[in-house]
Amino acid sequence: MKTLKRIFLLLMLLLAGSDTLLNAQTATLVKDINPGSAGSGLATNIPFVGYQSDNFAVMNGILYFTANDGVNGGELWRSDGTGAGTWMVKNINPAAGAEIHYITLGAGMLFFNAKNGTNAKQGGVGAEPWKSDGTAAGTALVKDINVGANDSWPRFFFPFGGYTYFSAYPTSHIVRGQGGIKVEVTDHEFYRSDGTTNGTVMVKDLNPGNVQGSWPGMFLSFQNKIFFVAYTNSNGYETWKSDGTAAGTSMLLDLFPGIGCGRDSVFSTPRMEITCRGWCTTGSSISPETTAPPAGHSGEPMEHRPALPW
User: Fold this and answer.
1) Residue with the larger pLDDT of the pair 141 and 284
2) Strands lying side by side in the sheet with 250-253
3) Which is higher by pLDDT, 116 or 305?
4) Which of left, alpha, beta for 234 (phi over 0: left; psi -120 to 50: alpha)?
5) Which residue in 149, 90, 93, 96 sits closest to 116, CA to CA?
6) If we measure between CA atoms, which residue out of 234, 231, 284 comes closest to residue 258?
7) What is the pTM of this model?
8) Are 66 and 45 in contact (CB under 8 A)?
9) Measuring CA to CA, how many Å separate 253 from each of 115, 213, 240, 273?
10) Residue 165: closest CA among 155, 177, 178
């Protein structure tokens, strides 16, 4: 009797599985954006190891993404799921591709990180916040935060209360550490934008007087406030909260007293870290953990930052 029951249950499972298979949709190619075997780079646009690049977003039923057609470099594309409805929205950087990252549906529009020129001679800017309503005319630079060809590298766009919040750095400095290693020091801070130049501002300097900034990230909303992780020289990485104003932005609680190298994070379980590419911060000083570049390093500036918790 038990054997018959087992056979009956097995048949039922097989029938259920076959029904699922019969009703499942078959994956099909929407469009061969870059004809040939090279591919369009849809799954390879990762800014650097340890970060997720959100290069797909949906707005008004249209999928937006970054792709390389083999001619224009990585640019912003859109698709309604058909070949005819899949095209490049705008060629932001005709010279070399816009290197788009972090496409996010912000407050009523798309926000993303892009370059419209690779150097000052091209009259372009570095990686800065851009916006798009899905049309070429409505795709534009929001603000040149780190003025000129330098990057502000905006990331972690997060919509909240009619604004889009993100992390970016207004300045960057090249310094030399022990052994003559060049290090790029960037002061990532907490920004918000309403999609206009004048409405794109730093909410608060969370780590004042320090060139490495606070590196805010891991944004989420709860009870009409934004919660996130940020770094200060006094407390390391801790949880902060904000209502979108400087006065309403403060550390929630120093759950892990002390600074170390900022390697303990409230939001990291198990803990994950990037070790500053061989550099670490202690207090307000910049101190090298190595006296020579990593093997195969080109000698270009390494980026200095506290060990990141995400």
Assistant:
1) 141
2) 217-222, 225-232, 236-242, 250-253
3) 116
4) alpha
5) 93
6) 234
7) 0.72
8) yes
9) 37, 19, 8, 21
10) 155
- The residue from 87, 119, 153 where one domain ends is 153
Q: For the chain, what's the residue count? A: 310
Amino acid at 302: M
| 13's tokens | 């499972």
Which of these three, 98, 125, 153, is where a domain ends? Answer: 153
Structural domain harbouring 295: 160-310
133 and 83 both lie in a single domain: yes
* Domains: count for the chain: 2
Q: For 184, how many CA atoms within 13 A lie in the half-sphere containing its CB?
A: 14
Closest CA to 41 of 98, 126, 90: 98
User: In sequence order, what are the beta bridge partners of 279?
Assistant: 288
What is the Cα–Cα distance from 212 to 302, expressed in whole angstroms? Answer: 13
Instruction: Calculate ∠ Cα 263-264-269, nearest 5°.
Output: 120
**In the prediction, which pLDDT does 237 show?**
85
